[in-house]
Design a protein that fits this description.
The chain has 13 helices and no strands. By secondary structure, it is mainly alpha-helical. The two termini are about 25 Å apart.
């Protein structure tokens, strides 16, 4: 998950740069299309195309539809917000994943973990400012919608992993998302600029390796434990904002980040202690 977060931070940076010149729906299509050649080469190397069509189609279609909604709303939100602001709002997703994992996956989450997650959400509210103006902006609402789509898709991925391979999950996710993104953006397609070639290359590499890592994370790890590692995205967002756009977080953002990181560390330590108690 830590590798996935690093890769997706670079991917989000590429999407933010592209959203300055292209519609959000086209950015979604470009994200999927750019990574497909790498994924196909990877699957050929592993001989993973055998039986690629024997999958649970309804679940794949649902997951891809959620992916289209997530990326389109996230790209739209990024065109209005900084990476740090977008990530702060998006941090609602791990709490949603935890709640869904209890209801759908029947996973057990202790009281301490619930308290830590609530504390982390309080940190997000601090980053958003006490008056909550971040929630009222169109960009903020778009990021909230993206977080909801992501949380549901994460639980769907966990269910799919019980029967389908990681490679088939990645392949059909990108294929269906590319087709959906193209269908939505073809009428308003903006010709690609030559100077954006390096951005598309970064988008392809980071998107491919990020998807590989996150699929592995949710297919092998407990969703309610893996998800809190996504808090590390805030550090990436702050650093990239400063390097590329010369913006730094204010006191509220730093305070909220400290609360979020503290809650994440507690969740990791709580799970480690619990595992050691079960297997001394």
């Amino acid at each position: 998950m830590l590798i996935a977060v690093a890769m997706f931070s670079l991917m989000d940076t590429s999407m933010k740069l592209l959203s300055e010149h292209y519609p959000a729906r086209q950015v979604t299509a470009l994200r999927a299309l750019s990574s497909l050649p790498l994924l196909c080469a990877y699957m050929l190397y592993r001989g993973a195309f055998k039986g690629i069509t024997r999958v649970r189609w309804p679940m794949h279609l649902l997951r891809s539809a959620l992916g289209i909604g997530m990326l389109t709303m996230f790209a739209f939100g990024l065109s209005m917000l900084s990476l740090a602001e977008a990530y702060s709002i998006f941090f609602i997703a791990p709490a949603l994943i935890t709640a869904l994992s209890v209801v759908v996956l029947k996973e057990k989450v202790g009281v301490g973990q619930w308290v830590a997650i609530v504390v982390g959400l309080i940190g997000v509210l601090v980053v958003l400012r006490p008056e909550g103006t971040g929630f009222l902006s169109i960009g903020g609402l778009a990021i909230l919608g993206a977080a909801a789509c992501y949380a549901i898709a994460a639980v769907v991925s966990r269910v799919l992993a019980r029967s389908d391979s990681n490679e088939s999950m990645m392949f059909w996710y990108l294929i269906l998302m590319a087709l959906g993104g193209l269908a939505m953006s073809v009428q308003h397609w903006v010709p690609l600029r030559a100077q954006d070639g390096w951005v598309l290359l970064a988008l392809a590499l980071s998107g491919f390796f990020g998807q590989l890592a996150i699929t592995r994370a949710f297919s092998t790890g407990k969703a309610s434990v893996v998800a809190p590692f996504e808090y590390s995205a805030l550090a990436w967002g702050v650093a990239i904002d400063w390097v590329l756009w010369q913006t730094l977080p204010d006191g509220y953002t730093l305070l909220g980040a400290g609360i979020i990181i503290a809650s994440g560390i507690y969740l990791v330590r709580r799970e480690t202690v619990h595992a050691e108690a079960e297997h001394p």
